[in-house]
Amino acid sequence: MTVRFSGKLALIAGGTGGLGRAVSLAFLEEGAKVVVTYRKQEELDALEREAGSKGSSIEGHRVDVTDEIAARQLVDRVLAEHGRLDALVNTVGGYAGGVNLWELETKVFEQQLALNLRSGYALSRAAIPVMLKQKYGALVNVASKAALDHAAGAAAYAASKAGALALMDSLAAEVKGTGVRVNSVLPSIIDTEANRQAMPDADFSKWPKPQEIARVILFLCSDDARVIQGAAVPVYGDS
Ligand SMILES: NC(=O)c1ccc[n+]([C@@H]2O[C@H](COP(=O)([O-])OP(=O)(O)OC[C@H]3O[C@@H](n4cnc5c(N)ncnc54)[C@H](OP(=O)(O)O)[C@@H]3O)[C@@H](O)[C@H]2O)c1
Predict the structure, then answer these.
(1) Distance, CA of 58 to CA of 16 (rounded, Å)
(2) The pLDDT of residue 239
(3) pLDDT at position 5, please?
């Protein structure tokens, strides 16, 4: 077992969710102290249980990361308590759609922008200055295949994920040469419990497991990936 993150601090936004939980556990396995944002206490409890003896290395904060002030306060707390922020992974996001754009409620459009685009915006603005000061840090934002592949019935989702990808691309160009790196991963369908329930007749074996995507994310956050800046890594598997 490689231990690439011993003594490092990883902040996982949405770190108790379907993908986020696997990312949190993978960082713990590799020696990191892990701070997660969560919304439901039972999700945090489940993560701590799953982490077993490493559960004490998890710290949870109930934060709405689409709120810029709350995101800044979160990063300030991490810094005050731990003195560093080595990796930030934003797994907050979600899908709403299945209707044509002209039928979509504007409220849903705005929610999609908040969840998929504003989350990364608020978190980056809070975390990047800290990483720049350290001259070290890695940010990975979870976008989606839909950022590139704009299907019917998914206009708000696709636009929000495409926006998130563009945001991270620009940010990566801005931090070039500073020791800070910014990259995105693009999942297609992930083998989460929610997807199994939503698509019970699908062939689950074709879907990448959260743990497999987590390994790619950890690689991007690791020093092994120090030459990777501004990438959008497809993690579609066979789906
Ligand atoms: N699952 C897929 O097939 C798939 C495919 C392509 C891309 N992705 C992307 O991959 C990422 C992870 O997906 P997932 O399936 O793991 O989603 P998930 O299970 O819903 O996890 C997201 C987590 O973020 C939390 N969250 C939602 N809004 C938040 C907010 N404003 N502030 C803080 N936390 C918030 C959620 O809490 P609640 O549970 O309370 O909502 C949940 O714990 C997302 O960006 C998603 O768009 C997923």
Answers:
(1) 11
(2) 79
(3) 98
DSSP letter, residue 209: P
- pLDDT attached to residue 2: 78
Pocket of ligand 1 (CB under 6 A): 14, 16-20, 37, 39-40, 43, 63-66, 91-94, 115, 142, 144, 187, 189-190, 192, 194-195
Residues (pLDDT < 50) of the chain are none
Alpha carbon of 158 to ligand 1 centroid (Å): 15
Q: Give the SS3 label for residue 93.
A: coil
Least Cα distance to 102 among 153, 141, 140, 137 occurs for: 153
* CATH code (residue 173): 3.40.50.720
Residue 182 belongs to a domain: yes
So what's the pLDDT on residue 131? 98
pTM summary value: 0.98
Q: Tokens 């998914």 map to which residue? A: 154
One-letter amino acid identity for 175? V
Question: What is the spatial distance between Cα 85 and Cα 189, in angstroms, rounded to a whole number?
Answer: 30
Structural domain of 69? 9-235
**pLDDT score of 162:** 98
CA–CA dist 5, 97 (Å, integer): 38
